[in-house]
């Protein structure tokens, strides 16, 4: 009986290890190749050496910096996504608080309308949105990347769910002391709602970090082009050098990796809670 | 329920403000709180949605906007006869029909594997999740290299087990399946994490009771695990389905819709007809049809989940 269990465990590990190889080999190859010369990459393709880091040349990295404004792409992405997150947290939580706690005419109808908006896929409004942004003269600006994405129906929904479950007593006693609603919101509600703020911030960041289609359309200039679009153009820009592309991809992966390492707990919780709450 | 605002009116510590004024101020605050979000949603979501619907009934061509006129269902009729559109619809359907069940099952299997209490299990969770942390554009570029028929890792690896060589992305019959494989590889870890959270919510005593009754692992899976995560399963299947109908980045980066339009999708056509051919009316008709498909999936989802929870 015990012997069987050990065999079963070994079997399980074999399966897990094979799967881990399947899931990791492309990423290992990417990082390892970024430090190799072009002939080395091609020579290693047919052997296990493709995954062995035996040289550490930084030539590919300097090559990337010579060919594209990589840092600029990175800063653009970081900046515009961060601004969406920050303004979004403010605007959406404020609306959600009104929906959760205040009485006003048309509240429930308005909230139902907001929830209904969650269904609209962004891909179906792409072209009219482009025309509106063009009308505002915002093409090739940060506004085009940021402003349409601040308000988010799903995030309003998430915030409201959380606020509804908060105990009312603290807010009520503060109100009796004469605190304004805005003050109550900032000094009592927000500190109590840290988990939902972190979850929404992370989900928003990850979503928009991966944005591709909209920035592809709304930006044509390197000065406002985000990382994902920059990577796509670099990939198709001759001469296509494996080493250069691998170095750029490796660097482009780092920011999300950092976020993941530092916020791992919230990241996973966020994914899970987004899953449950629907 | 008694509104909070009235309660506070009674206890209002400032006698100079009348209840009526106070109420008015509260109303002002409420609308002030929701206004920024509502205005932004209106201008950047509702308005474009209405415009998309409107354009879909016109012949709006971006270069000759002054000749725009109402054409009723002309664009939709054109769709029914457009072989490229029908092909894109079919390609999208193939992707959805394969990716949704396969990715959901792979994710569930992975979740069951990493839900075991084993040494080093955290490493395996991270390994399966790693592709999720890399963005879709980046993995698409990476896999274009891997799929290179002459200088790619995929053929080298398959060669070890005596398979191939394959043409992958350069063959019209293999390109979509290559994209499907990569997409599952990239996304399964995400669903795995949701499943894992669900699995960990199933109380241990249910399994213990089943063990005492002499149930084997398979019976436990069928009678405890699957019912325990039924709603999550339905939710994941639907979310994956909606995400799958939006397929765009992979074909755009890896194949530009080719070869021979074998990886052209609905969203790809929205993009191409709109931004390349500037045929706003026609592009909008495809966009509206795409929206209707997503809407139908969402409605089915609600029905399904409601039935399950009742």
From TrEMBL, chain A:
Alphabetized Pfam families for the sequence: BPD_transp_1
The keyword Cell membrane is assigned to this record: yes
InterPro entries listed in its UniProt record: MetI-like (IPR000515), MetI-like_sf (IPR035906)
Protein's cellular compartments: Cell membrane
Gene3D superfamilies, per database record: MetI-like
GO biological process, one term: transmembrane transport
Membrane topology field: Multi-pass membrane protein
ABC transmembrane type-1 domain segment(s): 74-263
Keyword Signal: no
Transmembrane stretches, start-end: 12-32, 79-100, 109-133, 145-163, 184-206, 242-263
Gene Ontology CC annotations of this record: plasma membrane
Keywords, comma-separated and alphabetical: Cell membrane, Membrane, Transmembrane, Transmembrane helix, Transport
PANTHER family for this protein: ABC TRANSPORTER PERMEASE PROTEIN MG189-RELATED, ABC TRANSPORTER PERMEASE PROTEIN MG189-RELATED-RELATED
Family: Belongs to the binding-protein-dependent transport system permease family.
The protein's name: ABC transmembrane type-1 domain-containing protein
Species assigned in the record: Fictibacillus enclensis
UniProtKB/TrEMBL annotation, chain B:
Record's subcellular location: Cell membrane
Biased composition (Polar residues): 1-19
Residues passing through the membrane, by range: 28-55, 93-114, 126-146, 175-199, 232-253, 280-300
Disordered: annotated segments: 1-20
UniProt-listed PROSITE patterns: ABC_TM1
GO biological process terms, semicolon-separated: transmembrane transport
Membrane topology: Multi-pass membrane protein
Keyword Transmembrane carried by entry: yes
Alphabetically ordered keywords of this record: Cell membrane, Membrane, Transmembrane, Transmembrane helix, Transport
Cellular component GO terms, alphabetical: plasma membrane
Signal peptide: none
Pfam families: BPD_transp_1
Boundaries of every ABC transmembrane type-1 domain copy: 89-301
SUPFAM superfamilies referenced in this protein's UniProt entry, alphabetically: MetI-like (SSF161098)
Chief site of localization: membrane
Domain of life: Bacteria
PANTHER family reported for this sequence: ABC TRANSPORTER PERMEASE PROTEIN (PTHR30193), INNER MEMBRANE ABC TRANSPORTER PERMEASE PROTEIN YCJO (PTHR30193:SF37)
Family: Belongs to the binding-protein-dependent transport system permease family.
Protein's name according to its UniProt entry: ABC transporter permease
Annotated organism of origin: Fictibacillus enclensis
């Amino acid at each position: 009986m015990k012997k069987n269990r050990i065999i079963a465990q070994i079997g399980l590990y074999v399966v897990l290890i094979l799967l881990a190889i399947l899931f990791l080999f492309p990423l290992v190859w990417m990082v390892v190749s970024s430090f190799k010369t072009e002939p080395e990459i091609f020579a290693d393709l047919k052997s296990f050496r493709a995954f062995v880091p035996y040289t550490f040349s930084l030539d590919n990295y300097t090559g990337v910096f010579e060919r594209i404004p990589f840092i600029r792409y990175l800063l653009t992405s970081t900046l515009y996504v961060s601004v969406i997150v920050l303004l979004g947290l403010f605007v959406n939580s404020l609306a959600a608080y009104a929906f959760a706690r205040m009485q006003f005419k048309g509240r429930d109808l308005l909230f139902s309308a907001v929830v209904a908006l969650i269904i609209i896929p962004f891909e179906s409004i792409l072209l009219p949105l482009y025309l509106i942004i063009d009308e505002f003269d915002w093409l090739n600006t940060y506004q085009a990347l940021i402003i349409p994405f601040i308000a988010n129906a799903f995030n309003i929904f998430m915030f409201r769910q959380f606020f509804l479950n908060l105990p009312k007593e603290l807010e009520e006693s503060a109100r009796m002391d004469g605190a304004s609603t805005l003050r109550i919101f900032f000094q009592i509600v927000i500190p109590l709602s840290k988990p939902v703020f972190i979850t929404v911030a992370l989900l928003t960041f990850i979503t928009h970090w991966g944005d591709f289609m909209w920035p592809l359309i709304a930006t044509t200039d390197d000065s406002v082009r985000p990382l994902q679009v920059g990577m796509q153009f670099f990939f198709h820009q001759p001469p296509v050098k494996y080493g250069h592309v691998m170095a750029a991809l490796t660097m482009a992966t780092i920011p999300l990796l950092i976020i993941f390492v530092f916020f791992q707990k919230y990241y996973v919780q966020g994914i899970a809670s987004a899953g449950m709450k629907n | 329920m008694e509104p909070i605002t009235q309660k506070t009116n009674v206890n209002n510590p400032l006698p100079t403000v009348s209840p009526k004024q106070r109420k008015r101020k509260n109303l002002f605050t409420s609308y002030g709180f929701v206004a920024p979000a509502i205005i932004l949603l209106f201008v950047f979501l509702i308005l474009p949605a209405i415009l998309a619907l409107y354009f879909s009934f016109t012949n709006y061509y971006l270069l000759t906007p002054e000749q725009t006129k109402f054409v009723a269902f002309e664009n939709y009729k054109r769709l029914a006869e457009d072989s490229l559109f029908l092909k894109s619809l079919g390609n999208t359907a193939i992707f959805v029909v394969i990716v949704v069940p396969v990715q959901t099952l792979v994710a569930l299997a992975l979740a069951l594997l990493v839900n075991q209490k084993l040494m080093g299990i955290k490493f395996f969770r991270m390994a399966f999740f790693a592709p999720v942390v890399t963005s879709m554009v980046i993995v698409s570029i990476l896999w274009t290299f891997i799929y290179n028929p002459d200088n790619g890792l995929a053929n080298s690896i398959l060669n070890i087990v005596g398979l191939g060589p394959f043409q992958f992305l350069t063959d019209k019959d293999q390109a979509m399946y290559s994209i499907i494989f990569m997409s599952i590889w990239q996304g399964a870890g995400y669903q795995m994490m949701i499943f894992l959270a669900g699995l960990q919510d199933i109380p241990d005593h249910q399994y213990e009771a089943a063990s005492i009754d002499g149930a084997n692992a398979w019976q436990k899976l069928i009678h405890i695990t699957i019912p325990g995560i039924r709603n999550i399963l339905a939710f994941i299947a639907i979310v994956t389905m909606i995400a799958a109908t939006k397929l765009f980045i992979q074909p755009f980066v890896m194949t530009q819709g080719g070869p021979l339009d074998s990886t052209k999708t609905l969203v790809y056509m929205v993009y191409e007809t709109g931004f390349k051919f500037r045929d706003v009316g026609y592009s909008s008709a495809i966009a509206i049809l795409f929206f209707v498909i997503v809407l139908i999936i969402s409605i089915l989802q609600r029905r399904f989940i409601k039935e399950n929870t009742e």
